[in-house]
Write a structure and sequence with these properties.
With about 725 residues, the chain is of the alpha/beta class. The strands form 5 sheets. The protein has an 8-stranded mixed sheet, sandwiched between helices. Strands 1-2-4-6-8-10 form a 6-stranded mixed sheet, with helices on both faces. Helix 18 (about 475-485) links the parallel strand 17 (about 465-470) and strand 18 (about 490-495).
Length: about 725
């Protein structure tokens, strides 16, 4: 068994307790580590020679938090609330034992101390934090669907007051050293090389070894729950939590409840209240889904877990970008920010200059907000070289074309680029709909041709969908993934097909919203139900954003390509009507499903009621939510069946990061698994009877449901932290 905690007592009776897990890059509080910690504290309590305790880390960071993979297994293991309560109490009582030993405890926080790591710090009598830009403290459990279950919801309010503590608990933000000192989260900030000595000096000063809340006459800073200002804080906090989460995320409300109830109780009773709320969250599906997708699987994707094996990394020093529009300009911006030289090409120099102007505007904003110094900004912009000469691409290590979504235009720029670029240079097409295998027909070297679907705006959207054509070589896939990582994007890899993966899921969402409109469902009901389900914006509003014209042209291209095999999407007639007849193509033109008055707030176009009269009987909000979420999940399942999706984790990440599918579900395939595949199939079959064959589950999916085969295997415990 690996030993993580070592102890050493000096001549002055100071016991140094060091966390240093040799098997992990970061210290985390696993069940085994908690057991070690309890044993170390018990030994210190029994040793009369121990006069004080110094806790430190043998790594640059302190403790990243709990072992998330251990926690994520709770739902799949069908852990019940009583067992979840016992798990929380195990660590909570260990920390309580530490702070009530009657011996002073100081902690030297050399770097990151988050979650359970910071809860341990809060249980110490003296905290000194390294004055380092990388050092942060905080309680981010809410971001994984949990609450601090080792005393965080009770010690933090008692330390800095309820009003100051609630935002840190309910939002889960990390706090840098200067702010941590100002808030009172730590007692001192010092250079990293001095923090242990500062802690030792405090221990040598014969301090009182008790926490403020254990002293006679203690009162909550800023007042307790009967204080009118504090009561108002809870009222506003509850309303905001309900509004921002649509009650799909139980953790923020549970945090408010735990603080409210616990603040009126003695600390030992309050810690039991906290554990009860923690247990409910731990044993629920939301925490499992968030941990699995947004931390475990996203972390694996960011580390290129599915990168083709055996392909050497080919660093991109110069990136060629063809097409200096919003997409090309956005890619140029993130590449330059990553330290890559960019050759930004368009058909004329003024258009290329305009593409650089996109980055100039973003950089100027960052300078104004203090995110970049003028010197760094100038260096970043200097990396972007606009040009109209294809010969300049000869210096590129990697080339991305980001021109219009028209096959003939993409074919022409591909041919021109291949005349000058080196034979081993990977060429990527940024496209959201056009099959890569067909686009590669214009390439002399289809093995080096790969799809890279960026999302707009590039500087904000975290996903890149990498598409493998029939002739795409593993080297091209690996190098595209390497570039995505360099650009700080999360890559998913999918096989070729019309619309690939994310566009298909997105298209299912928008088409269903339009179909409901055509059926006479109140457009406000459609939009509001979508947001209530957890989507960031309604299907009609997001259709306006990407433009109805773009969706219509994609359908026309599919009709041209497929001929008699073309099956019109359910929103085809609506798109045609709005684009050709009404000429309401979306937000860019100022008119779509919504009106966009200059200087005013957008609103649904009143004329919708005249074109699609509202039905006398309106569906329930739950029915609309069911249709909008199930149709996306069903499309994801089809992508697995057709071999477009290779890994369930990629489907989940793509749906959340690229489409905006609700994160609390864990993504489209986690959504099916959480509901239960058999129930999902039964519900989609019922939807098919009510609303049409697009909801009909395939034989493959029915067979999978009959066999009880989920899309995700149980989570295996491994390195993680929060």
């Amino acid at each position: 068994m690996t030993t993580v905690i070592t102890t050493q007592r000096d001549a002055a009776g100071i016991l140094t307790l060091t966390f240093d897990d040799p098997a992990r890059s970061m210290n985390v509080l696993s069940d085994a580590v908690v057991a070690e910690f309890k044993a170390a504290v018990d030994a210190a309590a029994a040793d009369a020679a121990v006069k004080g305790i110094l806790i430190r880390s043998g790594k640059a960071a302190f403790i990243a938090g709990a072992d998330l993979k251990e926690l994520a297994t709770a739902f799949d293991r069908k852990l019940n609330p009583a067992e979840g309560y016992a798990l929380s109490q195990e660590i909570s009582l260990a920390f309580r034992r530490l702070e009530t030993l009657g011996k002073p405890v100081a902690v030297a926080i050399g770097g990151t101390a988050l979650g359970g790591g910071f809860e341990l710090c809060l249980a110490c009598h003296y905290r000194v934090l390294a004055d380092d830009p990388k050092a942060v403290v905080g309680l981010p459990e809410v971001k994984v669907g949990l609450l601090p279950g080792a005393g965080g919801t009770q010690r933090l309010p008692r330390l800095i007051g309820i009003a100051a503590a609630l935002p840190l608990l309910a939002e889960g933000g990390a706090v840098k050293p200067a702010q941590a000192l100002k808030l009172g989260l730590v007692h001192a900030v010092a250079p990293a090389a001095e923090i242990e000595q500062r802690a030792r000096d405090w221990l040598a000063s014969a301090p009182e070894p008790t926490q403020p809340w254990d002293r006679k006459g203690y009162k909550l800073p800023g007042g307790g729950i009967t204080n009118p200002a504090v009561a108002q804080t809870f009222m506003v906090g509850s309303a905001l939590a309900a509004k921002t989460t649509q009650r799909n995320y139980p953790a923020p409300i549970s945090i408010l409840s735990a603080v409210f109830e616990g603040s009126a109780l003695p600390i030992d009773t309050a810690l039991k209240v906290e554990s009860r709320y923690f247990a409910r969250l731990l044993t629920g599906a939301v925490a499992r889904n968030l941990i699995r997708t947004m931390f475990i699987n996203k972390g694996a994707a960011d580390k290129l877990a599915h990168r083709p094996a055996g392909v050497p990394v080919a660093p991109v020093r110069r990136l060629g970008i063809i097409g200096a529009g919003m997409m090309g300009g956005g890619i140029a911006h993130v590449a330059a920010a990553a330290g890559i030289e960019v050759i930004l090409l368009d058909h004329t120099r003024p258009f290329a200059d305009k593409g650089k102007g996109y980055s100039e505007a973003l950089v100027a904003r960052d300078v104004e907000r203090g995110r970049l110094t003028p010197e760094r900004a100038a260096e970043q912009l200097a990396r972007i070289r606009p040009t109209a000469d294809y010969a300049d691409l000869a210096a590129a290590d990697f080339v991305i074309e980001a021109v219009f979504e028209q096959r003939d235009i993409k074919a022409e720029v591909t041919r021109q680029a291949e005349v000058v670029i080196a034979a081993g240079t990977t060429f990527a097409s940024n496209t959201s709909t056009l099959p890569i295998t067909q686009l590669a027909l214009a390439a002399q070297r289809p093995a080096r041709f790969v799809g890279m679907h960026f999302f707009s705006p590039v500087e904000k959207m975290p996903l890149v969908e990498i598409i493998v054509g029939k002739k795409t070589a593993p080297e091209a896939v690996a190098h595209a993934m390497d570039l995505a990582a360099r650009l700080k994007k999360t890559p998913i890899v999918v096989n070729d097909g019309r619309g690939f993966y994310t566009t298909r899921v997105f298209g299912a969402y928008t088409a269903e919203g339009m179909k409901m409109l055509e059926e006479g469902v109140d457009p406000a009901l459609i939009e509001n139900a979508a947001v209530a389900a957890g989507m960031p914006v309604g299907p009609l509003a997001v259709s306006d954003e990407v433009t109805l014209e773009l969706q219509y042209k994609a359908a026309l291209q599919a009709e041209t390509d497929l001929g008699p095999k073309f099956v019109a999407p359910v929103n085809y007639a609506i798109l045609k009507k709005f684009v050709l007849e009404l000429q309401r193509i979306g937000r860019r033109a100022g008119h779509g499903f919504y009106e966009y008055p200059p200087g005013g707030k957008k609103h649904l176009w009143p004329g919708l009621a005249g074109i699609y009269p509202r039905a006398a009987a309106q569906p329930s909000v739950d029915e609309v939510k069911l249709r909008l979420l199930h149709v996306q999940a069903l499309e994801s399942a089809r992508c697995v069946e057709e071999g477009v999706i290779l890994h369930a984790a990629d489907a989940d990440l793509g749906s959340i990061l690229g489409v905006g599918f609700p994160a609390y579900t864990g993504g489209t395939l986690s959504y099916i698994d959480t509901i239960g595949i058999a129930r999902f199939v039964a519900e989609t079959a019922a939807l098919a009877k009510r609303h049409g064959s697009r909801f009909k589950p395939s034989r493959w999916l029915r067979a999978r449901a009959a066999a009880g085969t989920p899309f995700h295997a149980p989570i295996a415990t491994a390195e993680s932290g929060s």
